[in-house]
Every structure is written in C-alpha cells, then in structure tokens.
Design a protein that fits this description.
The complex is a heterotrimer of chains A (216), B (220) and C (243).
Chain A (H helix, E strand, L loop, with lengths): L6 H37 L3 H15 L3 H11 L9 H26 L3 H9 L4 H31 L11 H12 L2 H33 L1
Helix pairs in contact in A: 1-2, 1-4, 1-7, 1-8, 2-4, 3-4, 4-6, 5-6, 6-8, 7-8
Chain B lengths: L7 H5 L1 H35 L2 H15 L3 H11 L9 H27 L2 H9 L4 H31 L11 H12 L2 H32 L2
Helix pairs in contact in B: 2-3, 2-5, 2-8, 3-5, 4-5, 5-7, 6-7, 7-9, 8-9
Chain C lengths: L3 E10 L2 E11 L4 E5 L6 H8 L7 E6 L2 E2 L7 H5 L2 E4 L11 H11 L5 H14 L15 H13 L5 E5 L7 H16 L3 E5 L3 H7 L2 E6 L2 E6 L1 H6 L4 H11 L1
Helix pairs in contact in C: 3-4, 3-5, 4-5, 5-6
The chains are: A mainly alpha (216), B mainly alpha (220), C alpha/beta (243).
Chain lengths: 216, 220, 243
C-alpha cells in the first residue's frame, strides 16, 4: 500500500538521525583513541614504528571508505564474529577516521617549535612530561578547528553505513522513499536534517580558526 | 574451522575488474574537469563578484559541504524524476560528483587567490598594470601554486568517493566487486582486491599530480 | 608649475581622520623628506599621491593631471609615478629580470630584448647587474630593495615615492640602499621619501616636511629645519629619533 509522505514520516526521519549521531559518537571515540596513538607513533623516535604507521595511513587514505566498510563487514565472520552491521560500521569508521584524525593531530604536534621541547628538557622534564605539559596543551588550540571539521566529515560519512543495511538517517530515507514514492521530498528532508547537524559545527570550526589565527 | 583465503577465483574475473577501473577513471576525469570549471567560476564570483553573487556562491558551498554526497546522489537520481527529469545512472553520477566537487574546489581556489598578498596586487597596480594584467602576471601563478596541493588531494579523495555511484547501479570498480562476489562467493577477498586496485589508482593519481607540480612549479 | 601639487586634501577611514587639510607642492628635481611619528599620516599621504588610497576632499595633480578624478586614466598616471614600498613587494615567482621587465613589456609593449637591455641598465644603476637572472628569494633584503628601486626606475617615472624603504632592513643593509637613493637623487629625480633616516634627509633633502596628527606641522629647508626645529613637537620627535 502506498502511503503519502506526511508529518509522521518527517518525525521518523528525525528520530532515525539519533542512530546517525550514535554511530558518529562511537566512531569518533574509536577514531580519537586510535588516532592519538597514530599521532604519537608518527613523532616517536622509533623509525620502524613511524614507517609502519605512515604506511598504514597511506593505505587507508588511498582506499574508499566503502571498501573498508564491506571488507570488515565480510571479514568479521572470518575471525569468528557473526555478521553485525553496527560492529562492522563502528570498526570501519574508527579505522578509517583514525588515519585522518591521526594526521590532523600529528600536524598540530609538529607545529610546536622544537625550542619548546628543548625548553622543557632543559627544565628536567622527561619526554613524556614535555609532551604532557608543554606540547599537547599548546597543540590542542591548533588541533580543535580541524578536529571539528573532521566531525562534520564523519557525520556525512556515516550515511555510507546505509549500504550495509544499518538503519540510520539515510537508510530510513531509502525505506521511506520506497514506501511513499515521494523520493524528492524524502531526500530533501534527509539532506536538511544532515545540514542542521553539520552547519553549526562548520560555523563553529570556522570561528575557532579565525579566533586562533587572530591570537597568533 | 580455519578459513583459507583464496584469491585465484577473484583474479580470474580480471575482465570485470578492468571494466570497472575504466568506468571509475572516466567518472573521475569528467568530475574533475567539471568540478574544476565550476570551482574556478564560483571562486572568481566569490572573490571579485558583486554582493548578491558572493552570497549565492557561499550558500551553494555551504549546502553541498554540509550534506552527504550519497544523499545528493539519491536526490538527483531518484528525486529529479519527480519533475520529469530522468537521467541515466552515469549522467546522474557525473552531475552529482561535479556539483559536489565544485563546492570544495571553490573554497580551495578562493583560498589560493587570497593567498596572494594584497601588497603584490598593489605593487602591480602601482606599475600601471590593468586589473586583468595583474591577475594574469602576478596573481595567477602563485595562486595556482598555492592551491595545487589541496586541489590534488581533493581530486584523489573524489576518485575514491566515486565508489558510491555503485549505489545507483553505475558499473564502476566498486560495482564490479558485487558481480565478482556473486560469481565466486569470495566475499572478503573481493574487497581486499578492490581495495588494492583503488590504492593503485590513488598511487598513480598522486604520482601524476606530483609530477605535474614538479614540472610546472618546482623546476627552475 | 609644480610637478606634484597636493591641495587641501583630507582623508579618513570611517570615523578615523588620517589627513586633514594637507597641501604640498613639489617642484621638478626636488627631494622632499616626509618625517613624523608612525601614525602621523605620512605613508598615507604618499599612497594618496599614487592613487592607491582615495581621498575625501581636495585635489592632487601630477604634471597637471588630476589623480583623484574618475575620468583620469590612473594606470597611465601610475606609469609616471614610481613607488617603492617598505616590504619590497617583489614578485616572488619572477626572476629579477622579469620583475623589472614585466611592466615595460605588458604595459608599454616593449619588445623583450629591449626590455632586457633596460633591465640591465637600471640594475647597473643600483649596482646589481650580476643578479639579472636571480630570484628574489636568493637576494638579501638590501639587494631586494635595490631591485625594487630598479623596477620602478625602469618605467622612467617623472617622480618617485619611497615609503620607508630602509625600515624593514637590518642596519648593516640600509647603507647600500641609501647609497642608491643618493645616486638617484644626484641624477635629478624628483623624489618624495617617507623616512626615519635623518642624516640622509639633512644631506640630500632639498626640503623636509614634518607631519603630526594628520597635518603638516612644520616645513622648510631640510638642513636648517632639522638643525633648528621651531615647534616643540618637532623638537620632541627629533630628540626621540636621534637619541
């Protein structure tokens, strides 16, 4: 039976956006944990470790997110984990995101002048303490705007989870479009919801960037 | 039970994979040319145009950059027929990619134009050069140089992003995966191979862009 | 008739008044030193003379042609008024030779060989003939500024404006630029300089103009005026820069 696209459908779409946000949050935490390790590894004095992570980043940044999503979706059963779109999406987005977030944070860390490390060392701080008390606090300021920008990318990228059947905003849109035969109205609504989620973050990122640029 | 990875069947389907690679390359080339043209035009409007044009371009850029490419693609392919505009998959895919890339390119080109210091423009004017001459001889080259790396990485990202056109049944490289998958039942291996092919394409693209940069800007 | 006539001009940025009722005549061959504290309006005056900044009242004429007139071909006028900036503003992507020949080639349509010959000639005048094919990044600050002066000379201007051309340089490099300025002055070029080099102003300035809070506060023959300032403001200023 064909229904019309109504207020109720809009509410369903808005409600589905919470799964988009849930996936975004999960993936952000995963990307942040893994990405921080990558960033540290990339500035570590152990050369093989730097090369390994650099190669990993190169590979991830040279393959489509969609491939990671499907590879992990079909690969999990091979290591004995049953097929589960949520787990596959969370892992894929975390791996993919960590390569980008790791590079953003590495950039922020290396943008702090070498003399700051030396100043820390001359006070008798250990390497970890230099990082913890001198370098990281200064680089956070630089890292925040692009990190917020990354978050926007992440929100948009979660739409790809629809392709492995995870019912988030875009998948809910596909289902509604199929049920109502009003694809244009449905996808405009879906796009608008994404816009409402992303636009404030984009503006925030931009204003932070301006503020930090001005302060420098 | 241990699962043995087996790639032979996947490689046996190399013809399907090659067809997919060609479609992906064609899509990427169309999108890059179209996206660059739109980007340059919009950036010029954004930097040098009248107020209403600046606002129009800004709105275009914001709308595209704050919504997913997949939804933009669905809107064009599934949504436009509501208005009697029925596009085949490839055309819809190119249109969506061009519109999407155009917005990102606009921002990159704009940043490139603005990277040329005002003092340079002033120095040109004070030598008696016209606005067009200042652009041609003083702004263009440094601006191109400044925007090139960002443009190149955006193009590589776009090439990878073309994979989503498989979702409207365009037979690109990613779509080839599902064909080979249904023939060989080697689900995981197929995507490893496809990933490797994309990685190879990205490698080639980066190499070409680096060479182009070297020949145009660095070799002096 | 004076070569440069500035008649009762005023300029403001929004509510901020930067020039108030400024008048200045510069005859052919004169070397005028504009001095004063930063923010006194001297650089703005220079930029107005070249039409880089619009003015709200008054008139500026160069060789009888009004600068602040919409019907004036500003591009044509600027070919006769050279300006050298504090920060050199060489074009980093062009060689020294291309920096100098760009305007002669594309504005005056000189053939490339003639333009290159011209570049060689003006570089000789600033003592950098051997740097014809160097790039700006390969030169010291002093050399870059000398190239900027050569670039301006290549247009054979009737008057040259210098906006604190030694302020961005290390002290040991200012000497070579001042020497070039001296030789340009000796050749009879009409020059207006914004400068903090009081020694130079005294020796080569035919006239000094002291600006204070957007007005001309005191002017006169350079040597006499700098030796015996009449107003308290000029005295204070000279004390501050000389000690």
């Amino acid at each position: 039976m064909i229904r019309t696209f109504s207020y109720v459908d809009v509410m369903y779409l808005v409600a589905a956006a919470r799964w988009t946000l849930a996936l975004t949050s999960t993936a952000f935490v995963g990307s942040a944990l893994l990405g921080f390790l990558f960033a540290i590894a990339r500035i570590s004095p152990i050369a093989p470790l730097r090369w390994l992570v650099a190669a990993l980043v190169y590979i991830v940044q040279g393959t489509p997110l969609l491939v990671w999503l499907f590879m992990i979706f079909f690969g999990l059963p091979l290591v004995g984990v049953s097929v589960n779109p949520w787990l596959a999406a969370a892992v894929a987005f975390s791996v993919y995101g960590s390569a980008f977030l790791g590079e953003i944070w590495r950039g922020a860390l290396v943008s702090i002048a070498k003399t700051q490390w030396e100043a820390g060392a001359s006070l008798g701080l250990s390497t970890f303490q230099q990082l913890r008390y001198v370098i990281v606090p200064q680089s956070i300021r630089i890292a925040i705007p692009p990190t917020v920008g990354f978050l926007v990318q992440l929100i948009k990228n979660t739409s790809l989870a629809a392709t492995i059947g995870l019912v988030e905003l875009t998948r809910e849109g596909q289902l509604t479009a199929a049920g109502t035969y009003k694809p244009f109205a449905v996808y405009i609504t879906v796009a608008s919801i994404y816009f409402v989620l992303c636009f404030p973050l984009t503006q925030w990122s931009r204003s932070l960037e301006r503020k930090f640029d001005g302060a420098r | 039970m241990k699962y043995g990875l087996q790639f032979r069947d996947v490689f046996a389907a190399w013809e399907s994979l090659l067809d997919g690679v060609l479609i992906t390359l064609l899509l990427s080339a169309c999108a890059m040319l179209g996206g660059l043209a739109i980007g340059i035009a919009c950036a010029a409007g954004r930097v040098y145009g009248p107020g209403w044009l600046k606002r129009l371009v800004a709105a275009y850029v914001e709308v595209i950059r704050n919504t997913p490419l997949l939804v933009q693609l669905f809107l064009i392919f599934f949504g436009l027929p509501s208005f009697g505009i029925r596009l085949d998959g490839f055309t819809a895919a190119v249109l969506a990619l061009v519109i999407n890339l155009g917005a990102y390119t606009t921002e990159i080109v704009r940043a490139g134009l603005e990277a040329v210091p005002r003092a340079q423009v002033e120095a040109g004017h004070s030598l008696g050069l016209s606005g067009l001459q200042v652009f041609r001889y003083i702004v263009m080259f440094p601006a191109l140089k400044a925007m090139f790396p960002a443009l190149a990485s955006q193009f590589v990202l776009l090439m990878l992003a073309t994979s989503i056109v498989s979702q409207i049944s365009v037979e690109d490289l990613f779509h080839a995966a599902s064909i080979v998958q249904s023939r060989t039942f080697r689900d995981f291996e197929v995507y490893v191979v496809i990933g490797g092919l994309y990685l190879g394409l990205a490698f080639v693209f980066r190499g070409l862009f680096a060479a182009l940069y070297y020949w145009t800007f660095a070799r002096r | 008739m004076a070569l440069v006539e500035v008649q009762r001009i005023s300029k403001s940025y929004g509510a901020l008044q930067v020039l108030t009722d400024v008048s200045l005549d510069v005859a052919k061959g004169e070397v005028v030193a504009l001095i004063g504290r930063s923010g006194s309006g001297k650089s703005t005056l220079l930029r107005c003379i070249n039409g880089l900044e619009p003015i709200q009242a008054g008139a500026i004429r160069i060789d009888g042609v009004q600068v602040n007139d919409p019907t004036t071909n500003l591009r044509k006028l600027r070919q006769e008024v050279g300006i050298v900036f504090q920060s050199f503003n060489l074009f980093p992507h062009l060689s020294v030779s291309d920096n100098i020949t760009l305007a002669p080639r594309v504005v005056k349509n000189q053939p490339p060989e003639a333009a290159r010959e011209l570049a060689r000639e003006v570089l000789r005048r600033v003592g950098l003939e051997d740097k014809l094919d160097a790039f700006p990044a390969q030169l010291s600050g002093g050399q870059q500024q000398r190239v900027a002066i050569a670039r301006s000379l290549a247009m054979r201007p009737k008057v040259m404006l210098f906006d604190e051309v030694t302020s961005a340089l290390d002290p040991e490099l200012t000497g070579e630029v001042l020497k070039v300025l001296e030789s340009v002055a000796r050749e009879g070029m009409t020059m207006i300089l914004v400068t903090h080099e009081m020694g130079f102003a005294r020796r080569f300035g035919s006239r000094a103009v002291f600006m204070h809070e957007g007005r001309i506060h005191e002017e006169g023959r350079a040597a006499a005026m700098l030796a015996e300032p009449k107003t308290l403001e000029l005295q204070t200023f000279l004390n501050a820069v000389l000690h």
